[in-house]
Amino acid sequence: MRQKAAGQRSRRQTAPSGRALELKVREATELETIPDSLDSITDIHNELEFAQWYSEVEESLLEASYDEYQACLQELQMSKSHLDSLLSDTSSTLNLLTSLSNDFRVVELQTSNFQKQCEGLLSAQKHDSDLAADIQENLQYYDFLDPASRKLNAPGAGNTVRGKDFSDMLRRLDECLDYMETHPDQKEAGVYRSRYRLLMTRALTLIRTHFVSSLRDVYTDASKKIADKQLNDTTMSTLLYAKFRVGAPELKQIGLEIQKRAVPPLEPDQGTEAEYQSLLNELHVNYAATRGKLIIPLVRKNLYDIAQSPTSSQDLVSFARASISYIRGVCLDEFELWGEWFHGQGGLYDFLETICEPLYDYLRPRIIHEDKIVKLCQLCTLLQTRYLLDQDEEIEQIDANQLDFPALIQPALEDVQTRLVFRAQAFLRDEIERYKPRPEDLDYPARNKQISISVTEGQISGRKVASADALVNLPKPTKQTEDGDTSLEQDSKWDLESPNALSGWYPTLRKAIWLLSRIYRLVNSTVFDDLAHQIVHQTNTSLHYASTLLTNKSTSTDAQLFLMSHLLILKQQIVAFDIEYVAPEVTFDFSGVTSTFWELRERGGLFNPRNLMRLVGHGLLPRVVENMLDAKVELDGRLRTVINDFINGFASKMTASLPAKFVDARNLQRGELIYPTCQNIEKEVPNLRKVLSEYLDDGRMKETLVGAVQDRVIQIYEDFFEKYTSSERRKGNPVSTKGKGREDTVWDVDTFAEWCEGIFRVGFLGPGQEVDDGDEDTTSRSLSRGGSPGS
């Protein structure tokens, strides 16, 4: 019952208001009466009463249940009607909302279209505004033509070039020209570009005219004052320089307007120059001409005074020193003044070269007529040391703010070097190549007593040197420092007229070394190398010719030693001059051409093109011939030859008694084969040392030559001993090749070599020691020590 009551309560809670509430109240009342009827169950005493009670209860319950269902049905009907009204309201609301949504969509579409229309209008407005601004901006480059034309073509336009408005107008013209250059697709761009160029040319021409006119006014004023009266140096300097400095900054500034526009294009065609470079060149030319009218006459006058002065009238070097110093001072003043008139140095050095022309007019004839090599060398030294930069040192780039005077004086140096080379070649031809020796020049060995000849500072190793190559390849002596002697002392040392000259040397050698020492480092290295090779070659030839004459006059030994000693001196001296390898001399041999044409003429086909083409590779073209002149190689070869000739000559003389054939009749038991040879060797060794002492003063060189002669003698004896042993073996006689052997037989090679060491004594005789020719005891001791057969 409680559950049913709870269900009723829950249904009542969900029942709608109004009639449903009344049903709930009634049901609650009926339920409250049910417990009262239940309490009467205790009054039931029989089945009838129970059935009656049950029936009443069932009816009351059925009636109560019916009311509840009826109330629920009514409630549902009410809810349905309520929901139907809600659904109807909702549908109407949805319809209204759909209608509003459609309206909003239409409004949104209209708004979007309106926005797009507004944006299009704004974009068109902006485009029109930009177009108008661009048109206005572009038109300003076209509109400037008329006012600029009126201003530049107005009377008195040249008087406005110094104003700021004129500079602004030039800048504006540059902008207009740049615009026309960058917009060639515009219709009138080409026409306006040409007109603006004409206006720019007109404006710059006005600047040029004003610049030249102002320069002319300054020149007229200065020249008038100079011509009116005599002026001292201070007044002259004021007129020539101070007056030109007054208006220079302002004129320099307007001249800069031309220079800024006289720039070459980025990719100029070959042979073209900057557009307005000619106007700038006119400024430079007019300035140089105006200054030249004032300066050059004064320079000529001062150079004439220098040339007529007693100290420099006869001396080339003194005149060059004074005149070049004066010209350098003038060039420095003009260099500074140029910097006050112009930016940069374009045209400056052409102007300075014009100022230097009077110097060359005076100096060049003196150089051409100067015959003394000493004076030419002194002038070269003066120019190279005082006015030119040292080529051997690494020099930084020349400062553009300083005068490059070496470039101005370089032509003078080239003139001196050309004259020096010409005189050196003439000296080589007359004094060396064509030199005819006098009798006293060939008075050897008597001339050796006048002065000692030292030929080398080399050091020999060991007791002997067997080949002439070791004598040719001498160690190079160290160069003397330039600080050792003054230039005056060096001049007297190498002066051919000086009494201190090396009279012991052959004249051509002395002159060759003197000439090399003079021109060294004064001419171009390539020219010096070529000339030095010619000098060495001709000196070599002259010495060889003198040795030939000496052979006829004296002995071959004197001639060989004369040539050897002088060649050694020449080789030692030329080391200090760094003579490089000379390029080959290329000539053409036309002998084949002559014979070929003669052959074609004989055949009758001289003018046949086919024959000419066929014979191109068969002698028709001249043949290229390369003449390689390397004087040092020639010198070494000739020195090697004369040393070998001397060694072989003395060795052959010592071993001349050795027989070439062996005769049975000869008494071999008495040592007749080698005894004369031993005596001859003992006799000739002192003569060898004596003759070497007459020509050579260096003890080590003498000992080297003595050792070489000893080696050659032993080699000749070895050849003789081989022939002797072969002959004896063919006869059936045994010969011992080792050991000393008996004194009455032929010595073996080792025994003879040991005996020769005792006789030649290479390396044991100090410098200045001589062998006594009449010391028979020494000779006999040497023979007995070596096993001589004649004791």
UniProtKB/TrEMBL annotation:
Residues 780-791 have a biased composition (Low complexity). Residues 238-593 form the Conserved oligomeric Golgi complex subunit 3 C-terminal domain. It holds the Pfam family COG3_C. One of its GO terms (cellular component) is Golgi membrane. Residues 767-791 are annotated as: Disordered. Keywords: Golgi apparatus, Membrane, Protein transport, Transport. It is found in: Golgi apparatus membrane. Its main location: Golgi. Residues 72-216 form the Conserved oligomeric Golgi complex subunit 3 N-terminal domain. GO terms for biological process: autophagy; Golgi organization; intra-Golgi vesicle-mediated transport; intracellular protein transport. It is a peripheral membrane protein. Belongs to the COG3 family. This is Conserved oligomeric Golgi complex subunit 3. It comes from Aspergillus carbonarius (strain ITEM 5010). The lineage of its organism: Eukaryota, Fungi, Dikarya, Ascomycota, Pezizomycotina.
